[in-house]
Structures are given as C-alpha cells and as structure tokens.
Task: structure prediction
Amino acid sequence: MTTQQKINEAPINFAEDIISNVKNTREDGVLKCVQCGLCTSTCPAARHSEYNPREIIERVLDGDETIMHEDYLWNCFYCYTCHSVCPVGNSVCEVNQILKQFAINQGIGGDKLYEYLGFLTHTLMQQLELFLKYFSTILQKMSLAGQK
Ligand code: SF4
Ligand code: SF4
Result:
C-alpha cells in the first residue's frame, strides 16, 4: 500500500483524534513534531526491528491510516524514552498506544493484542521465575547463617 492510500470510507483525522484522546498527555505535541529523529535514535525497539517512531508521526501527520495495519506498531513496549527526549514535547509512546486502540476498535489489531499479551505474560513469568530463584537463594543463605 502507498502511504497515502486510505483504508476507510470515513477517514480518521489522526492528529485531531490523538490530541483529544484521553491517553494523550502532551496536548498538541504531535503537531509540533519537527522530524528530528531523536525518538528513533534512542528507541530500543527501533534498534532491534524495523519499528520507526519518527516515521509513525510522519505518517500520522500525513493522515495515513494504513499505519494501523503495520505489525511493527506492536514492537513498542512503552519504555517512554521517546516521551522523555522529544525536544518539542511530543510522545510517540502515547501516540502508539492511541493508534493501537484505534486499530483494535476497527477490528484490526485483535490478533496482535493476543500475541502481545502472550509475549508480556511470557516475560513476566520469566521475571517471576528469576525473582523466586533469587529469593530462595537469599533464604538459604539466611538459614545457613542462622546455623553458625
Ligand atoms: S523526537 Fe519528537 S520532534 Fe523529533 S521526530 Fe520524534 S516525535 Fe518528532
Ligand atoms: S516507548 Fe516505544 S516508541 Fe518510545 S522509545 Fe520506548 S519502545 Fe520506542
């Protein structure tokens, strides 16, 4: 699909809908994007995949609704680095969350949501396992120290 190709009879006005969305805390930050690319250069997801925060904002400002179909939208894991470094007070992190919500509302992202939740659950279980191992080691050391 070309970037300007529309997928909807009644196109979303991305910028306006993002600004008025409850998840947006940066008011009209999305309109101030100067395409400096700082978000992309500091984004861990961009380092390891084709995900590109700067391009997301470019496509939003172009009104390109095909962005909602991009699998890589789901590569953002909300570290908020882009949110803290943007020189004009935009937050690609929040824009990403709103775009995913639009996609789910339009029945586009449901399968991705399950994949994403599966990934999150897997990651959380790994962290829990590590924590339990660590906790059990501490308990063992405390019990050994108590026997001396
Ligand atoms: S850091 Fe901010 S201004 Fe620069 S490209 Fe990203 S969103 Fe736009
Ligand atoms: S919140 Fe998402 S878009 Fe922003 S830096 Fe982190 S992974 Fe990248």
Remarks:
- The longest helix spans residues 110-147.
- The chain has two domains: 1-108, 109-148.
